[in-house]
């Protein structure tokens, strides 16, 4: 398990980037790290990878403080992509494999496997600068994976990708997680995080404001009753709990408490009920509530 405990980091005299950040990522778990720009995601990941030193707190792997030797076994994809633009795809991946300690033969073999797995076979002899953003992202992921890492730490890996590239990268990450690798990635694409991740951490202004499985976060918000009424009588929802809005010409009541049967009776009397049921809040709604 990767454990991040009470991280604190201040830049300059007043800029506190992290203020007691704690969470854990278990083996085989995909952890989505979400927050607004400047919330502290990248700073946290840089501390995990040893790029920055924490002022307080610690990072532990398998119960022990994380050191340089252990970090060499991590796969890291920084927000600022670190590829050599003039280098060809196969050379690039193999080169980073050698930097991670693979033999020339081992690095070449690992590069060939990843090139095929990530759909880069036709671009193997191209320089990185000639690739589309999506293919550059695939190369960057290959660089993070080439040494078969014990942990994956990925900062905005899906940024700017088309749906096909997103699916390709997501499938590879899911395979690694199924193999027991803890995967932590940051993203602003909350629907994608909700679809892929086992657990989610929400950070705001350097503090963790929510953390847990998606189901746990949903339970903390509570249930939500959604009622859609077409051709509704004016004022039908007066006195009922919840918020009334208009969507596509239909009145929609969103209620988090109150008697279901009483609400249903009022809706039936008001017009044609097109939908009546309990809905789960989306991760986007959970995020908005947590950072408000």
TrEMBL record:
Q: Does the keyword Transport apply?
A: yes
GO MF terms here are: ATP binding; ATP hydrolysis activity
- Limits of the ABC transporter domain: 2-230
Q: How does it sit in the membrane?
A: Peripheral membrane protein
Keywords from the UniProt entry: Antibiotic resistance, ATP-binding, Nucleotide-binding, Transport
Q: What is its main location?
A: membrane
Q: Where in the cell is it found?
A: Cell membrane
Among the GO biological process terms of this entry, one is: response to antibiotic
What domain of life does the native source organism fall in?
Bacteria
Gene Ontology, cellular component aspect:
plasma membrane
What PANTHER family does its record include?
ABC TRANSPORTER ATP-BINDING PROTEIN, ABC TRANSPORTER ATP-BINDING PROTEIN NATA
Protein family according to the UniProt entry: Belongs to the ABC transporter superfamily.
Q: Under what name is this protein listed?
A: ABC transporter ATP-binding protein
